[in-house]
Design a protein that fits this description.
With about 260 residues, the chain is an all-alpha fold. It has one domain. It is built from 9 helices and no strands. Helix 3 (about 30-50) runs antiparallel to helix 4. The longest helix is centred in the middle third of the chain and has 38 residues, at about 135-175. It is globular, with a radius of gyration of 22 Å.
Length: about 260
């Protein structure tokens, strides 16, 4: 975590933001989606693994909160830089517009991680019972704050989701889309929103969030199947791996003919 922090500080301090934002790609945010995912996994390990006691869980919970903060707040910097890029250079080319969905990832994973870590803190802080922070009351407070902050943060995720979907649909309406493997990047970021909806449904016992989670799951399943269909089709047609058949260099047999 400290290594990642140092690398981020060095990169941002040595980057000419004015010039760099003209070529900035949403994929730059992927490492910090992974960072917030690590935080979520830490909470899941504490909650659902067998044989975990307070002594084992507390270091995982504390380090997961730190990692979650690292991932989310660096994502804030990247979001700001990318909006500067949009204002200076406009939208990405039509075939790259699906990559806008990558911007959703950190918000969805952070919202889910805060809820899972809050539940884990509520479970183990009282059993640990040391210091002024690792107490039952603090664990209950973190569980409540996890839901509240999760609602705030998922709002940012929905903003980027609506923005990305609108741009994709507008480009599709103009018939400027061409299938590429970048379309696969639309699945995981939106799945992070679905994960947070599942957690909201559990924490608030909310039929609304459970319904939204089901709808998102079905949409993601359709997206996944369509990506497989178009990927297999374009591999068969030679458009993805070797280029279009019409652009391939002639083989020796064809040259002889």
């Amino acid at each position: 975590m400290l290594t990642i922090s140092c690398v981020v500080i060095v990169v941002f301090s040595k980057t000419d933001i004015v010039n760099a934002t003209t070529t900035l790609n949403p994929a730059i945010i992927i490492p910090f989606v992974g960072t917030t995912t690590d935080a979520l996994v830490g909470g899941v390990i504490c909650q659902y693994s067998g044989g975990v006691n307070a002594r084992l869980a507390i270091p995982i919970i504390v380090s997961s909160y730190m990692i979650c903060g690292l991932g989310f707040f660096v994502a804030l910097l990247i979001w700001a830089a990318y909006f500067v890029k949009l204002m200076n250079s406009g939208l990405p080319p039509p075939h790259l517009t699906p990559s806008l969905i990558m911007l959703v990832g950190p918000a969805g994973q952070t919202a889910a991680a805060l809820q899972v870590l809050g539940t884990a803190a509520k479970t183990y802080f009282g059993a640990y019972d040391k210091g002024t922070f690792l107490q039952t009351q603090a664990g209950e407070m973190l569980a409540t704050l996890g839901v509240m902050l999760g609602l705030f943060i998922i709002g940012i995720g929905l903003l980027f989701a609506i923005f990305g979907v609108y741009i994709i649909l507008e480009t599709a309406f103009r018939r400027q889309h061409k299938y590429t493997l970048i379309w696969w990047s639309t699945i995981f970021p939106m799945a992070t929103v679905n994960t947070s909806f599942i957690e909201f449904g559990n924490e608030m016992d909310s039929p609304t969030f459970r319904t939204l989670a089901t709808i998102f799951f079905l949409l993601l399943l359709i997206d996944y199947m369509l990506n497989w269909i178009f990927t297999i089709r374009d591999i068969w047609l030679g458009k993805l791996l070797n280029g279009p058949r019409s652009e391939r260099p002639p083989t020796g047999r064809m040259k002889g003919q």
